[in-house]
Amino acid sequence: MCHERDARPPLRPIVGGSDLARSGDIVLRSSDGTQFAAFEAVTSHDGAPGIVILPDVRGLHPFYRDLAMRSAEAGMHAVAIDYFGRTAGLQERNEDFDHMAHVRLTTPDGVAADVSAAIERLRSETAATRLYTMGFCFGGRKSFNQAARQRGLDGVIGFYGLPQRRGEDDVDPPVELAAQFRCKVLGLFGGADQAIPADAVDAFRTALDAARWRTRS
Q1: What's the start-to-end Cα distance of the chain, in Å?
Q2: 47, 80, 121, 129: which could join 68 in a potential S-S bond, CB 3.0 to 4.6 Å?
């Protein structure tokens, strides 16, 4: 968890009417047939970009519904996804939901399939001109790796997603997948974050620079 349970994204400065056209809970279907919960917020801006929001370990927490709305108010179409359609279904969850038990059952392939379904939703329901993913903590790492998993992305954004390998069983460390990335990467890390030391960030930057060089050569 990356913030308090009752935290919410800040409201944008009030400078006129809202640019939010519509918002609401939706159900998406992955390529493997899995149905999963998502939240969609569409902006009224013409030619706006689209962004898939990958939450922290809690999945589709109210924070991320609000973040999708703040994104639309700021001029971006947004879809925030839940990770647990395969293991917890579509039902509403309370604060006692054991999200970590379900996090351990997620797979890189499953997350990528769900992100792909959200991207297709943005393509079919909006006229998004550019497409991005943005994730937080657990979702930050998953967002980085969509640069290798998805075609047609313009960029991926990760807030404090672990780039380094976490052990022998770690199957998708971004630092080791960077050579497969196909789009721009923005990583945001905290200098005092003990889970992501500075040398891990430096190693990720070096891997990204090397991948960019290979792409150009």
Answers
A1: 40
A2: 80
